[in-house]
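Quick start: read one record
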Amino acid sequence: MNCTANINVIIRLRIDSDGDGVRTVVFFYGCPLQCVWCCNPETRFSEKYTVLDTNNLYDLIARDLIYFNATDGGVTFSGGEPLLYADFINKFLNEHNCIKANIETSLYGSFDNIEKIASQIDEWYIDFKLFDEEKHKVFTDVSNDLIKSNIVKLSKLVERDKIILTFPVIPSVNDSDDNIKQMIAFMKDCGLNKVEIHPYRKKSEMKYGKLGLEQHTFEELSSIKHFHIKKMFSESRIVVLERRPIIERSKCEVLKDIRRKYCKENSIGLNIEDCNYQGRCTGTCPKCEEELKIINEWRMKNA
């Protein structure tokens, strides 16, 4: 069966972001929600996407297998809404079960699609925005009844430790104590105890202008309010997780150490030299990629 997906962008070499270890994030095109603060409007409006089948996607991801294996990393399916492509994800992970997978989702979709991939996903990052249904309709264009129902069902289907609610905090929209108390009560009813707080960042507003779209403006979350929200969750025995991604020169050093260790363990005669680049580091460069290419050629030859 030919199975393809519309993919907006693929971002490699994220470290300790979107899950543990080194990860490749796949942003699918399309979303059933219309969140007015959406941080990825290009996945709904740009129509600049690439159609890939599961083998195409594997070819783009597989070059980083040594990084995945060394750090307990893998692929994270995001978007947009990846549940729109449940058949594609299911096929990809059946064909390439050597890759661990996380998903970032609103969980707004058919539970049949959730069940198709439930056993293949290591961690579920569920974007839970507003508890009040009417406010949810106003700011996302859909009811949250289906989302709540799917969270309840998922919490009974997979290990609850695999489920993390991600909370995008939008000042004056969902940062009230009442909304947070309702979220906490709902989480406890479902037996869930992990949350990630994602403060609104105004830099996402720039994307709307580039796409020729109306820009909705919100204030950024103050550090005082951020601390207060974290405290509310913590005092309710909800574990507050925070993403501290490794970037720039630190990323380069992590990846270089992995290549160096792999060469040593497999007696590959490749000298992994320290980087002497003086400018702003992006975490990888043509020299780094050439080293990775040589290692992967050796790996394929000796598989």
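The mean pLDDT is 94.
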